[in-house]
Design brief:
Length: about 110
């Protein structure tokens, strides 16, 4: 199973998402082609209702701990409950990467 599929499976099992968007953004970074190291997660779950933002992130970090300790270098998270998502309707896009060799060439 690839890393993206494993991360998606973990999130689906742990959070019963109302909405899930998982984007592999590795191609935007200074990594080899076809890497699975940088992801953007938009997750809407009733499990986040009444939970502070930091605690939401901690929940996801725990669920994906093995992947974050190994192949996943970065996970941008946008976590909402259903009411927040209905008001917001979309998550911010990730900024352009200027890390690693990209910064040196800028």
């Amino acid at each position: 199973m690839n890393i993206e599929a494993e991360l998606r499976r973990l999130v689906q099992e742990q959070f019963d998402p109302l909405y899930l968007e998982l984007d592999n953004e590795s191609h935007q970074h200074s990594v080899p082609a076809n890497s699975e190291t940088h992801f953007r997660l938009v997750l809407v779950s009733d499990r986040f209702r009444g939970v502070r933002r930091v605690a939401r992130h901690q929940q996801v970090y725990r669920a994906a701990a093995d992947l974050l300790a190994g192949p996943v270098h970065a996970l941008a998270m946008h976590l909402y409950d259903a009411d927040e998502w209905s008001r917001k309707g979309e998550a911010p896009e990730s900024p352009d990467c200027l890390g690693g060799s990209a910064r040196q060439n800028a």
